[in-house]
Amino acid sequence: MLKKLITIGLFGVFVVSMFIYSGGNNFASADSNKTLTIAHRGASGYAPENTMAAFEKAVDMKSDLFELDVQMSKDGELVVIHDTSVDRTTNGSGMVKDLTLDELQSLDAGSWFGEEFAGEPIPTLGEVLDEYRGKTGILIELKSPSLYPGIEEKVAEELRERNMDKPNNNKIIVQSFDHESVQTFNSILPSVPTGVLVGYSSTGISDEALNEFATYAEYVNPSKSMINVNLVDRIHELGMETHPWTVRDLESAESLLNAGVDGIITDYPDYVNDRK
Ligand code: G3P
Ligand code: CA
User: Fold this and answer.
1) Are 81 and 141 in contact (CB under 8 A)?
2) Are 91 and 24 within 8 A, CB to CB?
3) Domains in the chain, number
4) How remote is the C-alpha of 254 from its chain's centroid?
5) Residue 149 is part of a domain; what is its CATH number?
């Protein structure tokens, strides 16, 4: 009898400990090997953001994609720069929309980051697509598109004329915080996957919002601080994927990999690659 009780007791301990193990490891299903490394504004921890130097570094560091921000010059050309003014990242001043392409490309977009990058120009979207087409994935953010009426059609045309508008294993993705602009782009070029960017909100993302995103987007890309296993599962259940941003420390990389995200947008591609 005593032997039977001990056997039952030991079995119980085994079952409970397995339960605790799996419960404490909510992330067991995550396959971190498949998580994409996405270099934010290029490998912007190592080279000036949104320049060819940063994109080259992203490729050298074996990122799966790099992210860039696209805006429009005064004369209607698509240029790659994050802020709506040139003040922070160049030796010039003024709004991107008030400067011509020639004026923008005469600026030095590298020296602010380091003297070794002196003279790096602001690239056009076309220059970046020509250089990296077929070599790596590109996550294109439509930055402040309400300042640039028609920018969705212009980006679509740049992709079309290079035959980059065909489904190609999600090598080109177009995203924006402006969800109306994402919908516009999706209606112009439905073959190119789209993503909605979501800023931090303490209330999270509602089911209603996720269901709506699923009608026109393939990706929901929130601030990394919003990510947990439950949100990742809810996004996956609707057939979408998630690429949160922006990782600048090892702990965040680890935590997002464990949560089972599909890609990580980071200034430091090695922080993610070294942990996959
Ligand atoms: O791709 C996500 C991330 O780029 C969004 O934030 O301000 O760096 O464009 P931001
Ligand atoms: Ca961006």
Assistant:
1) no
2) no
3) 1
4) 17
5) 3.20.20.190
Decide if 251 contacts 229 (C-beta within 8 A). no
Residues with Cβ within 8 Å of 133's Cβ and at least 6 positions away in sequence, in order, are 162, 164
Q: pLDDT tens digits, residue range 19-61?
A: 333 332 223 334 666 899 999 999 999 999 999 999 999 999 9
Nearest CA to ligand 1 atom 4: 40
Q: Which residues line ligand 1 (CB under 6 A)?
A: 40, 67, 69, 82, 141, 197, 245-246, 265
What is the CA(259)–ligand 2 centre distance, in A? 22
The domain in which residue 177 lies consists of 36-84+121-273
> What is the signed CA dihedral for 68, 64, 39, 231, rounded to 10 degrees?
90
**Cβ neighbours of residue 180 closer than 8 Å, sequence gap 6 or more:** none
- CA 19 centroid distance within chain: 35
Among 200, 211, 214, 215, which Cα is nearest to 246's? 200
Model pTM? Answer: 0.89
User: Quick one: pLDDT at residue 32?
Assistant: 65
Ligand 2 center from residue 67 Cα (angstroms): 7
Query: Side chain identity at 42, as an amino acid letter?
Result: G
Is there a cis peptide before residue 136, judged by omega within 30 degrees of 0?
no
